[in-house]
Structures are given as structure tokens and as C-alpha cells.
Amino acid sequence: MHTITNTRLLKVLNNEPVDRTPIWIMRQAGRYLPEYLATRKRAGDFMTLAGTPELACEVTLQPIKRFSLDAAILFSDILTVPDAMGLGLYFEAGEGPRFKSPVRTPADIKQLATPDPETELRYVMDAVRLIRRELNNSVPLIGFSGSPWTVATYMVEGGGSKEYQYIKRLMYGDTQALHQLLEKITTTTIAYLRAQADAGAQALMVFDTWGGVLTPRAYQLFSLQYMQAIVTALRKSHASIPITLFTKNGGMWLPDIARTGCNAVGVDWTTDLRDARSLTDDKVALQGNMDPGVLYGSKQTIREEVQRVLESYGSGGRHIFNLGHGIHQHIDPDNVEVMVETVHELSPAFHR
């Protein structure tokens, strides 16, 4: 294994001391960057962009070239998995992701393919291999997937949702069928994440975007237990790879998430890091949690908010600075630069 030049992220994930707080940004390779928009235009559509390893590599590296971030994250989409399971992913202009064949019945669930990550999802693995080579061990590469619950929600709804009509109808009307669906997605996701690690990803993250729409009991049954299964399986095959779990709007469940055996828990902006630290008993690293909306503010406001986030976590090495969710499309990249540089400037004081 070649030595990585910047190991801050991996050190924090492994509970080792660092000289300053590492920072990366959810959706850092994305639409707020003019160079991303240029590559996206060249690709013609999102699926070509995500499905062409050279283009996925190019956009993954764009934020690394522009900002002094402590990690790259694979440019892909959480919906590559259901696409490989046969649902026919496409993107509607202004509407976001859609599936040609949503999964609504036990028969639909039975028909789902369990794809081989090095066959149907080979383009993702090829992108990971290419990005690792191009990064040349400058910073670690994070691989990721959606949580089984979040992926199931998209699969059953057929796209994004405000009311979760179909998934909740399945959840309360045919619990057994939903569990069968979640088990299939979990099996596929474990294979997918293992393949990313084998291809060269040095840390893994699971995004549970829709976990926060569940009741506490339903969260345990339909979201957390399947993320737990992923962590347990990865621990068996890739004992040393660090894993981060992130449930949006899941602040009240942080102690349960921390008990899964993950290395870090993502925290959105609705929970103070001080509270998150106390709830998780310092057992895991915490990642977050500046409100992405702060980046619409003045440079002075951004600096003040970075200071506030650092203070809310306090001293000690187990903090990864990030936004509380993905960066917005209309953010000025210069404001991102201010945030990144302010973290570099102010965070060493918390690591003495």
C-alpha cells in the first residue's frame, strides 16, 4: 500500500490525533462548480457522466484541484444500485431521478436481479480504480452507497417523494414484502461496497437520506437494522476500512447509530455537535454539520459560523468538518474557499 500524503481524514476515523480538523463536503463534485457544468454539458446527460469512468474521475478531481480538501468522494449516484437491479434509471429535466419500472408488489420484488458489482456496476469500479490512480495518494478516496431504506424509497416511489405514499403503503400494508425488498437491497449494497473497497476506496459512507421520515420504531426496523447488517458484513470482509453512517433528520437516533460499530456518524445541521458528542459518548467520530445555507452569507458570516461549528464540537480529534447535508447548486465557489481556508486557520487551536 502506498503512503497517502494527507492522512487526516483516515486518522480521525481511526481515532488518531491530527494537527487540524479535516474537511470535505457532501456533493463537493457538483453543480456549484463551473468546471463541473462544463464537463456535464460535454457528457450530454447525467447517466453518461456517472457511467463513463473517465468523466466520473474528472469531476471527482475538480474540487480537489480547486480547494485544499482532505478527501475525494467518488462521483456517482446512490441510484446506480437499483438501476443495476433492473429498474431503468433516467433523469427528467427539473424533476430529478425517475425509474421506468417502480417496485410496487411482491411479484415486482421477486423479479429483482441481484447484480454483480464487477459486471453491471463495473463502470463504478473502473471509476474508483482510475480516481485512485489519478489522486496518486494525495488524499484518501471515499466510496459510498445509499442506505437500503433510502434506496427502497426511491425504488417504490419511482423517484423522489414528499408524501412517501407507496413506500408507507407497503410498510404498513405488507411488512413482509418490504423486508424482502430491503434484504435484497442490503445484499446488493454489501457486495457493492466490498467491490468499491477492493477497487481502492479507502473509506466508505452510507447515506440514509430518508431515514428521518420514519417513526422511531420504524427507523429501527426498516432503516437501522439494515445499515447494521452492512457494517457487520463489511467488518467481516474489510475489518480495517472506516465506515460512516449518516441519517438526515436522525439526531434523536445518534446513540443507536453509534452502537452499530461504525467509525463515524454524520450529523445534520438540526443537531448541535455538542449534544451529538454527548449522545454518542465520544465513541465515534462526528462529521458535520454547518448548514449549507450559510454559504449564501457574507464571507464574515461564513467565518463566524465555521468558528461556531468548531466550538460546538470542542477540543479533541474526532471531528470531521462538513456541511449538514449536500452543498446547494447556487453557492459561489469563492465562499466554499472561505469555509475551507477558515477551517484550516481556526481548527489547529482545537487539537493542541
Mean pLDDT: 96
Total E-strand runs: 9
Shape: globular
The percentage of residues in β strands lies in 5-15%
**What structural category do the secondary elements indicate?**
alpha/beta
Compute the CA-based radius of gyration.
19 Å
Number of helices: 15
Strand order of the largest sheet: 1-4-5-6-7-8-9
How many domains? The number is: 1
Indicate the low-confidence ranges by residue numbers.
none
- At CATH level 2, the architecture is Alpha-Beta Barrel
The ordered string of helix (H) and strand (E) elements is: HHHHEHEEHHEHHHEHEHEHEHEH
Q: What is the C-level CATH assignment?
A: Alpha Beta
What does the main sheet amount to? 7 strands, parallel
Through-space gap between termini? 30 Å
The CATH topology assignment is TIM Barrel
User: Helical percent range?
Assistant: 40-55%
Short description:
The chain is of the alpha/beta class and 352 residues long. The protein has helices at 8-13, 34-43, 46-51, 53-66, 80-87, 106-111, 122-135, 148-157, 165-173, 175-199, 216-237, 254-258, 273-279, 299-313, 333-346; strands spanning 72-73, 89-92, 96-99, 141-146, 203-208, 243-247, 264-266, 285-290, 319-323. Helices cover 49% and strands 12% of the residues.
Q: What is this structure's SSE topology?
A:
Blueprint: H1 8-13, H2 34-43, H3 46-51, H4 53-66, E1 72-73, H5 80-87, E2 89-92, E3 96-99, H6 106-111, H7 122-135, E4 141-146, H8 148-157, H9 165-173, H10 175-199, E5 203-208, H11 216-237, E6 243-247, H12 254-258, E7 264-266, H13 273-279, E8 285-290, H14 299-313, E9 319-323, H15 333-346
Parallel strand pairs: 1-4, 4-5, 5-6, 6-7, 7-8, 8-9
Antiparallel strand pairs: 2-3
